[in-house]
């Protein structure tokens, strides 16, 4: 983060663009394998005048673990100005774009551990960024990124118990289960990133940056419902007596604050190696819930009418702290550089609200790269 000196600086620390001495065209893509598996704990079904029945569940796994596209395209240049840097970039934010668990409308298994949790999610999100940076005498630099967040498509599916009777919730399955899917898009959400760096001596550098806008993505969506149980029949969605399926999904975005310290070992004017320690603080506590506004929509099934207003999927996430330590070593100057490091990030989701729709537990890992 203290050393953000290529086109990716637009999203990390835009002040680093002031260090660019030429024009850079940067194209990259990340291929990832995202295997999620779990076994739901056994639960008991209590029946009137009968002993409780213990129910166990098979292991379920993400059926779409491969993510082939996580692209970045950027152009950065000083435009011939020694103390300035500029950049334009298009990128997909980090994360898992698609997840699919083994439960669909045709699924006949009543003991699926995935029931009443997220069934599938597919999100296409693009960040369009424009950045500018300025430095003073190689001592300090400042920069800013203006960001347009575009969501071409967002789809989220969840199984709900369609029973309208009081205290009739079922822990395993119900003949009134419904597969509910929200699908929509969002054209524009504004965000901004500010950054700076300070180099008191040539071998030591500090960096600070932050994604400073408390933004919400508002997704104009359509709701579809497919009965899974044999007691529901068709479901009719209306508003004020007319057919309607429009809803609004709100996704709060966290703010992110970063700080970094970098030491670089010099041999004259040549950098031999560097070591950098970064700390991130992300305000995931903004995500108390995912909210769907149905605006007084009415769902009619089997002569029963249910009015839908605000629907909340509780999250209660917590702020997270991430620590990253890494470095570069110039094995062959200007020809071969080795990079290695490790990272750790605290859990976002409390255990009581842990879900499969986001990997919100503690995260740790290492990396090794050569170029």
Descriptive report:
The protein is mainly beta and 371 residues long. It is 1% helix and 59% strand. It contains one helix and 25 strands. The chain has a 19-stranded antiparallel β-sheet that branches. A two-stranded antiparallel sheet has the order 2-7. The protein has a two-stranded antiparallel sheet with strand order 3-6. A hairpin with a 6-residue loop joins strand 8 and strand 9. The longest helix is centred in the N-terminal third of the chain and has 4 residues. The protein is elongated and about 85 Å long. The two termini are 19 Å apart. The mean pLDDT is 87.
What is the topology?
Layout lengths: L8 H4 L10 E7 L2 E2 L3 E2 L4 E3 L7 E3 L4 E2 L4 E2 L3 E7 L6 E8 L6 E3 L17 E19 L3 E22 L15 E25 L2 E8 L4 E12 L8 E4 L2 E2 L2 E7 L3 E12 L2 E13 L6 E13 L2 E11 L5 E13 L3 E10 L17 E8 L1
Antiparallel strand pairs: 1-8, 2-7, 3-6, 4-5, 8-9, 9-11, 10-11, 11-12, 12-13, 13-14, 13-15, 14-19, 15-18, 16-17, 16-21, 18-21, 19-20, 20-23, 21-22, 23-24, 24-25
Largest sheet: 19 strands, antiparallel
Helix content: under 10%
Order of helices and strands: HEEEEEEEEEEEEEEEEEEEEEEEEE
Rounded Rg? 25 Å
Which geometry do the CA atoms define? elongated
Mean pLDDT, rounded to whole units?
87
Class per helix and strand makeup: mainly beta
What proportion strand?
over 45%
Q: What is the total tally of β strands?
A: 25
Low-confidence stretches: none
Distance between the termini: 19 Å
Number of helices: 1
Short description:
The chain has one helix at 9-12; strands at residues 23-29, 32-33, 37-38, 43-45, 53-55, 60-61, 66-67, 71-77, 84-91, 98-100, 118-136, 140-161, 177-201, 204-211, 216-227, 236-239, 242-243, 246-252, 256-267, 270-282, 289-301, 304-314, 320-332, 336-345, 363-370. With 371 residues, the protein is mainly β.
């Amino acid at each position: 983060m203290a050393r953000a000196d290529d086109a990716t600086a637009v999203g990390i620390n835009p002040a680093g663009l002031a260090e660019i001495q030429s024009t850079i065209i940067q194209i990259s893509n990340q291929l990832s394998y995202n295997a999620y598996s779990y076994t739901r704990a056994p639960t008991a079904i209590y029946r009137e005048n009968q002993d409780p029945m213990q129910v166990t569940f098979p292991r379920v796994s993400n059926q779409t673990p491969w993510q082939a596209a996580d692209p970045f395209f950027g152009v950065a240049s000083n435009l011939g100005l020694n103390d300035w840097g500029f950049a334009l970039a298009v990128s997909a934010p980090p994360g898992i774009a698609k997840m699919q668990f083994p439960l669909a409308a045709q699924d006949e298994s009543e003991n699926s551990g995935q029931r009443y949790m997220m069934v599938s999610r597919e999100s296409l999100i693009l960040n369009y960024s424009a950045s500018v940076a300025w430095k003073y005498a190689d001592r300090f630099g400042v920069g800013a990124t203006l960001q347009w967040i575009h969501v071409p498509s967002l789809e989220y599916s969840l199984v709900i118990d369609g029973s309208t009777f009081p205290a009739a919730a079922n822990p395993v399955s119900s003949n009134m289960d419904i597969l509910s899917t929200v699908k929509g898009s969002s054209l524009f959400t504004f965000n901004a990133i500010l950054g700076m760096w300070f180099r008191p001596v040539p071998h030591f550098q500090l960096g600070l940056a932050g994604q400073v806008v408390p933004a919400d993505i508002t997704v104009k969506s359509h709701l579809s419902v497919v009965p899974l149980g044999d007691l529901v029949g068709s479901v009719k969605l209306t508003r004020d007596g007319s057919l309607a399926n429009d809803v609004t999904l709100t996704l709060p975005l966290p703010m992110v604050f970063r700080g970094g310290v970098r030491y670089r070992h010099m041999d004259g004017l040549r950098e031999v190696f560097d070591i950098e320690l970064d700390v991130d603080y992300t305000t995931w506590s903004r995500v108390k819930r995912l909210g769907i506004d149905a605006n007084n929509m009415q769902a009619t099934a089997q002569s029963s009418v249910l009015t839908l207003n605000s629907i909340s999927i509780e999250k209660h996430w917590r702020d997270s702290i991430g620590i990253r330590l890494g470095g570069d070593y110039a094995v062959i100057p200007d020809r071969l550089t080795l990079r290695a490091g490790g990272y750790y990030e605290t859990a976002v989701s409390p255990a009581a609200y842990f879900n499969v729709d986001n990997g919100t537990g503690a995260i740790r890992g290492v990396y090794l790269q050569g170029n």
